[in-house]
Design a protein that fits this description.
Layout (H helix, E strand, L loop, with lengths): L2 H4 L6 H11 L2 H21 L7 H18 L8 H20 L7 H21 L5 H8 L3 H11 L29 H15 L5 H12 L4 H8 L3 H23 L7 H6 L1
């Protein structure tokens, strides 16, 4: 209810709201939206959180305002603000429920966690101290085990930064420093073992040329000077050796052929 309605004065928006309800005139809708955007911003402020930028909340409240305008029925005699505020609050609650969690638990567990948070806040005000887990469970009519599960799920709402240090000391290691990473050396070892297994198909000169090219990093001209052949011939030898290795690798990967039934009986 607006202040003018409370003082017994007719709300100047009443006629606009009634006209929009009948005509659905988009110009009237835009005018009403602009008029009630400060109210939407006020409602968004009630849900302000470090988890979600305020402008995002303000946009969600504006969406709730649009829904309230489209659903409002002036014939019921309820002030628009009385109807719109819960509608906007509902949109904001759904947004925070669906988008403000670092790790999103299953829907049932998420709703339980939110209920526990609300019950915890109510009991803290009522008791003058943080409630015990048994008191929260009793207030919600659930078991202590269910309450503990909900509390653990609620902890997922706030993530911990990987840049957070382990201690208060200057230069202390961070949580991110404790994360493992792939060691490229394992791949190199595996590649070397694979090459050793396959290189049996190469002759001694081919193995030496490949070693000089890919391990020592020599150019084809430099390799030719060492093995006593032209750069062009070195290029052909490298291509041929790589082709042999590729053929050998495909042979290793190909499963052995199973003998047919007649062959199995004869042997």
């Amino acid at each position: 209810m607006t202040q003018r309605e409370h003082n017994g004065c007719p709300d100047p928006d009443t006629n606009l709201l009634a006209s929009y309800a009948k005509t659905r005139d988009p110009l009237l809708r835009e005018r009403l939206v602009r008029r009630y955007l400060p109210l939407a911003r006020l409602v968004a402020g009630r849900f302000q959180s470090h988890r979600v930028p305020f402008e995002d909340l303000n946009q969600v409240a504006a969406i709730g305002l649009l829904k309230a305008l489209d659903r409002y029925d002036p014939a019921r005699g309820v002030a628009f603000s009385t109807y719109a505020v819960p509608t906007m609050a509902g949109e904001l609650k759904r947004h925070l429920r669906d988008h403000a969690w670092s790790v999103r638990p299953p829907r049932g567990l998420l709703e339980l966690a939110m209920s526990i948070r609300a019950a915890e806040a109510d009991l803290t005000r009522e008791l003058g101290r943080p409630p015990a887990i048994g008191e929260i469970a009793g207030a919600l009519g659930i078991t202590v085990e269910e309450a503990l599960e909900g509390v653990q799920a609620a902890d997922a709402r706030d993530g911990t930064s990987l840049d957070e240090p382990w201690s208060d000391e200057d230069g202390a290691a961070t949580l991110g420093d404790s994360l493992g990473h792939d060691d490229a050396g394992f791949d190199r070892v595996e590649d070397a073992i694979t090459f050793d297994l396959l290189s049996e198909v190469l002759d001694e000169r081919e193995r030496r040329i490949l070693w000089l090219r890919f391990h020592a990093g020599l150019m084809q001209r430099e390799i030719g000077e060492r093995v006593g052949c032209s750069q062009m011939h070195v290029s052909r030898l490298i291509r041929g050796a790589l082709r042999k290795l590729a053929d050998a690798a495909e042979g290793e990967a190909r499963p052995p052929e199973e003998p047919d039934g007649l062959h199995a009986l004869l042997h």
